[in-house]
Amino acid sequence: MYVRATISQKLGIHQLPLSVAFFSQVDIDHVLRKEVNLICKTPDGKEVPPGWFISISFLWLFSDCLLHFLGLFLTLPVNFLFNSII
């Protein structure tokens, strides 16, 4: 994103389209590969387990569920919360 913005700025393009402004997913992996589900082998022949990714739809769903849970949690009576902690 930063590279695209820098090149666009140098070319005089001061606004980026929305389609390139966000990533569709974030890859979480401990090796560098094109996709997290590709088979990867080390030089000694051992396979590296696949990584995982978080998509924007998962984040929306997770944040929506979390907000609903927090809303439920905050509406519980205070004495119920303290009794359940102790």
From TrEMBL:
The keyword Transmembrane helix applies. One of its GO terms (cellular component) is gamma DNA polymerase complex. The chain crosses the membrane at residues 52-82. Keywords: Membrane, Transmembrane, Transmembrane helix. It comes from the Eukaryota. Signal peptide: none annotated. GO terms for biological process: mitochondrial DNA replication. InterPro entries: DNA-dir_DNA_pol_A_mt. One of its GO terms (molecular function) is DNA-directed DNA polymerase activity. This is DNA-directed DNA polymerase.
